[in-house]
Amino acid sequence: MRDHLIIFDTTLRDGEQSPGASMTKEEKVRIARHLERMGVDVIEAGFPAASNGDFEAVKAVADAVKDSVVCGLARAIETDINRAGEALRGANAARIHTFIATSPIHMKNKLRMSPEQVIEQAVKAIKWARQYTDNVEFSPEDAGRSEIGFLCRVLEAVIDAGAKTVNIPDTVGYTMPEQFGLLIRTLRERIPNSDRVIFSVHCHNDLGLAVANSLSAVMNGARQVECTINGLGERAGNAALEEIVMAVRTRQDYFPCDTRIDTTHIVPASKLVSGITGFPVQPNKAIVGANAFAHESGIHQDGVLKHRETYEIMRAEDVGWGANKLLLGKHSGRNAFRSRLKELGIELESEEMLNTMFMRFKDLADKKHEIFDEDLHALVSDEVHTPEEHFRLLSLVAHSETGEVPFARVVIADGSNECHAESEGSGPVDATYRAIEKILNSGAELQLFSVNNITSGTDAQGEVTVRLQKSGRIVNGHGADTDIVVASAKAYLSAYNKLYSKLERAHPQV
Ligand SMILES: [Zn+2]
């Protein structure tokens, strides 16, 4: 019997903390549903005490997800733990993840507590959290700079108090794989009650070693890895879920454990997260990069054609490349549409919503012959990203011709009013944005503009992500269309609607 390696995904918490990656409640739920279908064991949904927005998002994920444990983060203080407990009330299986700093520098300067007080506080927090759930995880923050003897005492005390998982973070991404593996081994050997808990690791990628450090810990007895889709996360990010899972799966001769992840959901998960956050995946990224399975060199191609295992250690289809099967087309009916959405984990609030979406789907199918899963995600994103669509694009004319100055004419609904504007620009998108700004007068700063094709082919939908900043608030907007100028206009308005409705965004700070 192989050990089970628990996959703890923190895309919605640590991943969301990367600047500009904040997600709405609906987006978090959509990603959580995908993670659940993939077989992720634990989904860390957020930090409920950080803001009302974060509380609501964790609550929505807890209510929606049934097959994965849903986890909320809390500092080792009663009020934080209460917020987490409340947010997780609707979960089938809930976990509270509580943490306190254990390094001399943090204890002295940040917490202003003695080491004894820190132990006492940690124990109190575990017991307090256990009022809400038996499934309590503890992290000693800044473990890497903590004194090993003290770390052992804290961990022994929290295990006695009933913690089921102890998580060792490499918060600043400083350790080397051998060192980190040795740390895990030492803790397991020196802590007398260490056999009563699962050891977990949480590694950051500042030196590009997050995955290596995590795997080294696994070889030394860690049985939970905290990771994120695409390695999303603060600074250089976290360990990438797809790399951890595929390393362990591909090298079953080496690792004494395996995960229960259905790997065919990996690439769709990567695309979903990249689409929602607007963070593109680099082409040479392991597993999920566009080139990860492309063999360019003639020698390689020849080898792969003759016998795939010569150069391929994994099969593209096993991680979900090509899983975007052609499923719907122009002649697909409402039921086929509805059931495909359901399979994708997309639940629409009402029958009316389904009708609207179905009409949009038919429109799209007229312009584009083949509709892939990604198209459906984009279609739904377009519709539900912005709960209150105060400003809507009614029509757009954009003109570009070599040798001529591009111009655009837009008509936008401002509530029930129709506003018209036109402008010239350096290109059709620039002209469109200038025209839109004549109406909105937002004063927002455009921080990011990116275009991705959702599927391949020149009739593919372009998905545009726009990031706007105004008075310290950062919002992302998305728009998809077979015409990228239209997609650009939609993305801009989607971002501006978020600014306009002052939709609260979760900005947890740990
Ligand atoms: Zn982290």
Automatic annotation (TrEMBL):
GO biological process terms held by the UniProt record: L-leucine biosynthetic process
Positions with a binding annotation for Mn(2+): D14, H202, H204, N238
SMART domains: LeuA_dimer
Highest taxon of source: Bacteria
Pfam family for this entry, one: LeuA_dimer
SUPFAM superfamilies with a match to the protein in the record: 2-isopropylmalate synthase LeuA, allosteric (dimerisation) domain, Aldolase
Names of required cofactors: Mn(2+)
Single GO term (MF): acetyl-CoA C-acetyltransferase activity
Alphabetical keyword list: Amino-acid biosynthesis, Branched-chain amino acid biosynthesis, Cytoplasm, Leucine biosynthesis, Manganese, Metal-binding, Transferase
Pathway annotation: Amino-acid biosynthesis; L-leucine biosynthesis; L-leucine from 3-methyl-2-oxobutanoate: step 1/4
Family matches, as InterPro entries: 2-IPM_HCS-like, 2-isopropylmalate_synth_dimer, AIPM/Hcit_synth_CS, Aldolase_TIM, LeuA/HCS_post-cat, LeuA_allosteric_dom_sf, LeuA_bact_synth, PYR_CT
Region (Regulatory domain): 392-510
NCBIfam families in the record: leuA_bact (TIGR00973), PRK00915.1-3 (NF002086), PRK00915.1-4 (NF002087)
Family affiliation: Belongs to the alpha-IPM synthase/homocitrate synthase family. LeuA type 1 subfamily.
Official protein name in the record: 2-isopropylmalate synthase
